[in-house]
Amino acid sequence: MSPAYFNLPNAVLLIFAAVLGGALNAVAGGGSFIVFPALLFTGVPPVPANATSTVAMWTGLTFSGGAFRRHLNVSRRVLMPLVSVSLVGGAAGAWLLLRTSAHTFLQVLPWLMLTATVLFIFGGKLAGSSAARVDHSASTKAIVAASFFQLLVAVYGGYFGGGMSIVILAMLAAFGMADIHEMNALKTILSSATNGVAVIIFILKHAVYWPQALVMILGASLGGYFGAKYSLLLPRVWVRWFVIAVGTGMTVYFFARGH
Q1: pLDDT at 151 over 50
Q2: Is the pLDDT of residue 222 over 90?
Q3: Please, which residues have CB within 8 angstroms of residue 128's CB and are 6 or more apart in sequence?
Q4: How far apart are CA 153 and CA 90, in angstroms?
Q5: What is the distance between the alpha carbons of residues 31 and 161, in angstroms, rounded to a whole number?
Q6: What is residue 208's predicted lDDT score, i.e. its pLDDT?
Q7: What is the Cα–Cα distance from 252 to 114, expressed in whole angstroms?
Q8: 65 or 197, greater pLDDT
Q9: Smallest Cα–Cα separation from 172: which of 140, 149, 195, 194?
Q10: 0.90 cut: is pTM over it?
Q11: What are the distances in angstroms from CA 142 to CA 47, 74, 237?
Q12: 137-145: long-range contacts at Cβ-Cβ below 8 A with a sequence spacing of 24 or more?
């Protein structure tokens, strides 16, 4: 693998993109839509850019998880199936990425983002009864349904990953979670599991550009930790509307990009 063009200006651009991307992922998701284009702009080919972005953003997620850990309020009965399917789906998605083009996903991405954003906005109303809720009293049916949806999200996350966090938040809203900080805590766990196994596969398959990755790991770690920490100081409704704004903005951008 020939190295991409890497110099000081590119390194500065990548670290700033990673700080912003890590902070955005900690609060709402969508950091990949900043980091991935930055890597392409600095000369990294699409598939290695995707792999390198995943490595950097995963590091940022692990740092943001420390700020949200006290808000995790999910029983092991619910958490373990969701984490398990995240690992399986992340591995499957990473395997697919290394064998196919991302072109198809880039075509359907605007529709995925539109669906996720609408689902996040109206998810609480869609949940309906307590039988559909993912909490300590969740029914087996609700857990199975949530696990199946999370498996699909994890395959997508391992393959491309852009907007995965918003899709997870949408799923949690649809299954009755309302506290944005509790949702972010669980989202961080599931995203970390999905991207963690993908990171291992990308490293083993030598798909990562390490000079760029190391610079972005530093930026994403800072952005992830401080983004999560200071988002907890904001009113919950502000963070919720920020999530909606990010989802709407990314949806409009990718629809416009496709025309």
Answers
A1: yes
A2: no
A3: none
A4: 9
A5: 10
A6: 94
A7: 8
A8: 197
A9: 149
A10: no
A11: 36, 14, 26
A12: 138/75, 138/77, 138/78, 138/175, 142/175, 143/77, 143/78, 143/81, 144/81, 145/175
| Domains of the chain: total | 1
Which structure tokens are listed for 198?
A: 């993908």
CA distance 191 to 27: 13
Q: How far is CA 62 from CA 55, 58, 115, 225, in A?
A: 11, 6, 27, 8
Question: Residue 29 is which amino acid?
Answer: G
Of 43, 87, 252, 69, give the one whose Cα is nearest residue 163.
252
Domain assignment present for 109: yes
Report d(CA 135, CA 123) in Å as an integer.
15
The reported pLDDT for the residue numbered 1 is 47
Alpha-helical runs (H) found in 69-179: 76-97, 103-127, 140-159, 164-174
Whose CA is closest to 57, among 179, 255, 202, 235? Answer: 202
Q: What range does the domain containing 69 cover?
A: 8-257
> Please, are residues 40 and 242 in contact by the beta-carbon 8 Å criterion?
no
Q: Do the Cβ atoms of 222 and 56 come closer than 8 Å?
A: no
Cβ proximity of 174 and 119 under 8 Å: yes
**Is 2 a member of any domain?**
no
Q: pLDDT tens, 228-246?
A: 667 667 676 777 787 788 7
User: Distance (Å, rounded) from C-alpha 60 to C-alpha 23?
Assistant: 8
The DSSP call for residue 70 is G
- The answer to whether 34 touches 240, Cβ cutoff 8 Å, is no
The vertex-125 CA angle with 121 and 131, nearest 5°, equals 130
- pLDDT tens-digit map of 42-53: 988 888 888 999
* Domain annotation covers residue 1: no
202 in any annotated domain: yes
Compare 32 and 126 and report the one with higher pLDDT.
Answer: 32
